[in-house]
Amino acid sequence: MSFFGLGTRDIAIDLGTANTLVFVRGRGIVISEPSVVAIDERTGDVHAVGSEAKRMIGRTPASISAIRPLRDGVIADFEVTEAMLRYFIRKAEHRRRARPRLVMCVPSGVTEMEKRAVIDAALAAGAREVQLIEEPLAAAIGAGLPIAEPRGHMVVDVGGGTTEVAVISLGGIVVSESVRVGGYELDDAVTAWMRREHGLAIGQQTAEDIKVELGSASPMVEELEVEIRGRHLASGLPRSVQISSAEIREALAAEVAAIVDAVKETLERTPPELAADITQSGIVLAGGGVLMQGFAERIHEETGMPTTLADSPLTCVAIGSGMALEEFTAMTRGGKQVRPREAAGVR
Fold first, then answer.
1. Per the annotation, does 160 bind a ligand?
2. What pLDDT digit, counting tens, does each position of 275-315 carry?
3. Which of 14, 62, 89, 310 is deepest in the core (most CB within 10 A)?
4. In angstroms, rounded to a whole number, what is the distance separating the alpha carbons of residues 181 and 255?
5. How many C-beta atoms lie closer than 10 Å to residue 322's C-beta?
């Protein structure tokens, strides 16, 4: 049976903890916005979604809450996730009664219950059919790796809530590791460091800005310093302090080490023939977290494997999901029998 029909607006959604990207078949990525929803606590109505809602974090009146409905790559608030998906689907389709078929990305380590929650939320948001694809496989497709070959390829996808590590061969995941460490855990580490070392309370957006500007996984050629403003815990008054990139590297050390350990553990569990392939094909890095300064170099130093960034780390999961839409249709047209679970990781 054909998974995708002709003449339909099939959609692929990379439902991330930090950002949601929407790929519409024939149009490409049409939406890339933060996974944030602002809710009016008095009425339960959605006040804003995406970029507009993110600007409200930490700045809303008591009656409005800016919520991130996903945590660690999975749904933490079902109703808010449903509302967010409905908004993005309607925005992508430019109509209120859109009922597309969806491919949704999920971390490789999610439970059956967590997968069911994603499917149910998408159906409740208006989709008429939902299939799941594992994020590392989507990232590999989006990065242009020849995953159908009998050859090992390794992908590391560091997202907002999880880090996915997978070895792929013959169109399927052979070995994988999913750790719930991502961009938000790095932000939390910065926040905790500022409180502990400087007695300064900072907001979530400030922590993210510090991570982006000063964060590094290995020593920098030239260390940086910036002035940070926040609320002094002892006096309760605004205060500014100077912090360095060396400090922030220390603040992030445990989380970065957890990601490195996940990569090394996956390599240790990889069959010898595929491990030999990876020594030649190397490790491909995807996701926003891999853009941290020195991250690729750190992975290379720790594993000895060639390490490269995907051409578009921030979007390759969404692009790969969108390419899967086209690929399934092409295979159906050609009369080939395909088994989605084995050939493309779709559930």
1. yes
2. 999 999 999 999 999 999 999 999 999 999 999 999 999 99
3. 14
4. 7
5. 29
254 is in an annotated binding site: no
DSSP state letters, 107-151:
-TT--HHHHHHHHHHHHHTT-SEEEEEEHHHHHHHHTT--TTSSS
Residue 34 three-state SS: strand
Which parts of the chain sit beneath pLDDT 70?
1-8, 95-98, 326-347
Q: Which residue has the tokens 């990569």?
A: 263
User: Considering just the CA atoms, what is the radius of gyration of the chain in Å?
Assistant: 21
The second-level CATH assignment, the architecture, of 145-310 is 2-Layer Sandwich (3.30)
Strands (E), the chain: 11-15, 19-24, 28-34, 37-40, 46-49, 64-67, 70-71, 74-75, 101-106, 129-134, 153-158, 163-169, 172-179, 200-201, 225-232, 238-244, 283-286, 307-309
User: Does residue 182 have a known ligand-binding role?
Assistant: no
188 labeled part of a ligand binding site: no
The domain made up of 11-139+315-343 has a fold known as Nucleotidyltransferase; domain 5 (3.30.420)
222 is in an annotated binding site: no
Domain limits, the chain: 11-139+315-343, 145-310
Any known ligand binding at 210?
A: yes
pLDDT in tens, 115-168: 999 999 999 998 888 889 999 999 999 999 999 999 999 999 999 999 999 999
Q: How many CA atoms lie within 13 A of 268 on its CB side?
A: 8
> Does 161 appear as a known binding residue?
yes
Residue 17 is assigned to a ligand binding site:
yes
> What pLDDT sits at residue 232?
96
User: Angle CA(102)–CA(106)–CA(109) in degrees, nearest 5?
Assistant: 155
Backbone CA torsion sign across 131, 137, 140, 144: negative
Are 11-139+315-343 and 145-310 in the same CATH fold? yes
The answer to whether 171 is annotated as binding is: no
3-class DSSP assignment, residue 157: strand
Give the model's pLDDT for residue 213.
95
